[in-house]
């Protein structure tokens, strides 16, 4: 099982009021529908005794076990409709465009803060849920949601580099080397379709910090991204597990849980903690305003805070959760993977990143638009 003591140097930073960046995933989609059971009451109402009808879940791609959802349906009588996204920005755009048919969404830390400021989330007061007591203490008062008014924790992890050294013809130890890779990686590189992840990594590669407000740093980033663009196989957060497993990509920016799942089948790939550092992020359950099945949403979130259910989710996606007691039910091979359980000499490289200012976000958007065009 995963040792929380080994993870503590990373997760303890959450309670200090800092954490950010993107999230996770890898492959399947579904269809969300909206209909009508459940109330639209806020978090102060009595917790619903039981649910019925349906739940519309909007989650990262390949980020929850289908078997777990089937068991939830069997135990609660609530039918789950799953739809997926591949970036926080895609999630936000969907909600801002009027996509109000979802009951539970899964934004990352910095995006929660942004959504709260935009008035897009309902108060649910997770601490009052029957299983709210199971949330590990360091995940209670996070900077983006003090007291867990709007969210419940789902998974947390890091974003690093996956490489097949034998196929690319050399080692990759840093973001600088990732963006200037060995010759054998050309044409076989994978990049996340996520502006926050890519631009932040490129800023580190040019010697700057994520969320820099210095325009000159972004000129360097633009040049770096322009140089690597022709070497990419794909820019996508979907399907990265399958591509790395099959060898279609041999060097990729990857989330650590996705790497773990790929490495189970492809023993030739290695996880890299870039020497310039890498982000520690957290994903969360939230209920958007306009949700039709709020009671069902609360029942689902509470159900996911049960240790056995949280462990089953972790065993499928390969990321650490924040539920006390779940360790006892986790797969033992998670503890053996250095991508999930960082070695002592690498743990300090993974750090939370504060939310970017609007000035920095505008610079991110400019660089990303240029890169994607």
Automatic annotation (TrEMBL):
Entry keyword Lyase: no
Claim: Transport is one of the keywords in the record: yes
Highest taxon of source: Bacteria
GO cellular component, one term: periplasmic space
Molecular function as annotated in GO: polyamine binding
Gene3D superfamilies the record matches: Periplasmic binding protein-like II (3.40.190.10)
UniProtKB keywords: Periplasm, Signal, Transport
A GO biological process held by the record: polyamine transport
Pfam families with a match to the protein in the record: SBP_bac_8 (PF13416)
Cellular localisation: Periplasm
Chief location: periplasm
The protein, known as: Extracellular solute-binding protein
């Amino acid at each position: 099982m995963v040792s929380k003591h080994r993870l503590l140097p990373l997760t303890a930073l959450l309670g200090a009021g800092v954490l950010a960046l993107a999230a996770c995933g890898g492959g399947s989609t579904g269809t969300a529908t909206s209909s009508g059971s459940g109330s639209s009451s806020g978090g102060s109402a009595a917790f619903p005794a039981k649910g019925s009808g349906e739940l519309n879940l909007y989650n990262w791609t390949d980020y929850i076990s289908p078997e777990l959802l089937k068991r939830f349906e069997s135990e609660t009588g609530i039918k789950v409709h799953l739809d997926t996204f591949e970036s926080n920005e895609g999630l936000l755009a969907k909600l801002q465009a009027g996509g109000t048919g979802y009951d539970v969404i899964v934004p990352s830390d910095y995006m929660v803060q942004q959504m709260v400021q935009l008035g897009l989330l309902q108060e649910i007061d997770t601490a009052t849920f029957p299983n709210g007591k199971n949330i590990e203490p360091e995940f209670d008062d996070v900077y983006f949601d003090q007291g867990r008014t709007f969210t419940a924790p789902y998974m947390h992890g890091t974003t690093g580099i996956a490489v097949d050294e034998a196929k690319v013809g050399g080692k990759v130890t840093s973001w600088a080397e990732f963006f200037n890779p060995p010759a054998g990686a050309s044409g076989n590189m994978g990049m996340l379709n996520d502006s926050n992840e890519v631009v932040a990594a490129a800023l580190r590669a040019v010697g700057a910090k994520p969320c820099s407000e210095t325009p000159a740093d972004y000129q360097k980033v633009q040049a770096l991204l322009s140089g690597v663009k022709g070497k990419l196989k794909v820019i996508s957060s979907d399907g990265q597990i399958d591509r790395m497993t099959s060898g279609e990509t041999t060097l990729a920016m990857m989330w650590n849980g996705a790497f773990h799942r790929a490495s189970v089948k492809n023993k030739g790939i290695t996880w890299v903690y870039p020497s310039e550092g890498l982000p520690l992020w957290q994903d969360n359950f939230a209920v958007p305003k306009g949700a039709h099945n709020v009671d069902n949403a609360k029942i689902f979130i509470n159900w996911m805070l049960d240790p056995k259910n949280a462990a089953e989710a972790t065993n499928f996606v390969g990321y650490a959760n924040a539920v006390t007691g779940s360790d006892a039910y986790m797969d033992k091979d998670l503890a053996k993977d250095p991508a999930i359980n960082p070695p002592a000499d690498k743990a300090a490289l993974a750090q939370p990143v504060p939310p970017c200012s609007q000035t920095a976000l505008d610079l991110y958007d400019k660089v990303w638009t240029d890169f994607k065009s």
